[in-house]
Design goal:
This protein is α/β, with parallel strands linked by helices and about 200 residues long. The chain contains six helices and seven strands; from the N terminus they run ββαβαβαβαβαβα. It is about 35% helix and about 15% strand. Helix 1 runs parallel beside helix 6. The longest helix has 18 residues.
Length: about 200
C-alpha cells in the first residue's frame, strides 16, 4: 500500500529507504505518531536526494499490523506525519509503500506469505509500475541485511547503515551477501549514493 508524496514525472533513478532505524529512530513496534523521532540528519539527507533529481521511496515491513499491535490506519497516520515533518524542512518522499503481512500473524487477513514483505520484491515492483522507476539504476538503504538482499533481488545497489539494528547486523553478515557500501547513517549513505550517481553520469 502507498501514500503518494507529490513525486515528479520523468526521473527513473530512485533511492528506496527503509523506515525504522534508517529514516526514524528504531523504537520497536511504532504504534502512535508521538513516538516518531527523526535522526538529526534525516531531512538534510532526503532533501539532498530531492535536489539531485532522484525519486525517494519508502519501503518498510510493518508486521505489527499482522500481529495485531496496530492497524493500517496507524501506519498511514505515521507516514502522513513523516511527510509533514519532511515538508516543513523542504524535503519529500515521493511515495510510501509498506507490507502489513506476516506468515505468523494473528490477524487472519494479514497472516500470509507475500511478495511485498522484504526481501521480497513486491514493493519495488509496485514502485516500478506506478512511478516508472528502473531498479537497476537504483539504490536500497536500510539497517538490516534484508534491505541489502532486496537490492540484490531487484538488481539495485544496497547500502547498510549502522543506525537502528545496523551495527549489530554488520557484525553478523549472512553467508554470500555483501553490501555495496556500509555507512554510519543515512546522510553518509546519501553522500555515497550521490558520488556513485555522478560517476555514472560521467561514464555516459
Amino acid at each position: 500500500m502507498s501514500i503518494p508524496g507529490g513525486g515528479r514525472q520523468g526521473a527513473r533513478d530512485a533511492v528506496f529507504l527503509d523506515r525504522d532505524g534508517t529514516i526514524i529512530e528504531e523504537v520497536g513496534y511504532l504504534d502512535r505518531v508521538e513516538r516518531v523521532a527523526f535522526y538529526p540528519w534525516t531531512i538534510d539527507a532526503v532533501r539532498a536526494l530531492n535536489r539531485a533529481g532522484l525519486r525517494v521511496v519508502m519501503v518498510t515491513n510493518q508486521s505489527g499490523v499482522a500481529r495485531g499491535f496496530f492497524s493500517e490506519a496507524i501506519v498511514e497516520e505515521v507516514h502522513r506525519h513523516i511527510a509533514s515533518m519532511l515538508e516543513a524542512g523542504g524535503a519529500r518522499i515521493d511515495a510510501y509503500y509498506y507490507c502489513p503481512h506476516h506468515p505468523d500473524g494473528k490477524v487472519q487477513q494479514y497472516a500470509q506469505r507475500c511478495e511485498c514483505r522484504k526481501p521480497g520484491r513486491g514493493l519495488v515492483d509496485r514502485a516500478q509500475r506506478e512511478l516508472g522507476i528502473d531498479p537497476s539504476r537504483s539504490f536500497v538503504v536500510g539497517d538490516r541485511w534484508l534491505d541489502v538482499a532486496l537490492a540484490r533481488t531487484v538488481g539495485a545497489q544496497g547500502v547498510l547503515v549502522r543506525t537502528g539494528y545496523g551495527r549489530s547486523e554488520e557484525a553478523r553478515p549472512p553467508q554470500g551477501l555483501v553490501a555495496d557500501a556500509v555507512a554510519d547513517n543515512l546522510i553518509e549513505a546519501v553522500g555515497w549514493i550521490l558520488r556513485r550517481v555522478r560517476l555514472t553520469k560521467c561514464d555516459v
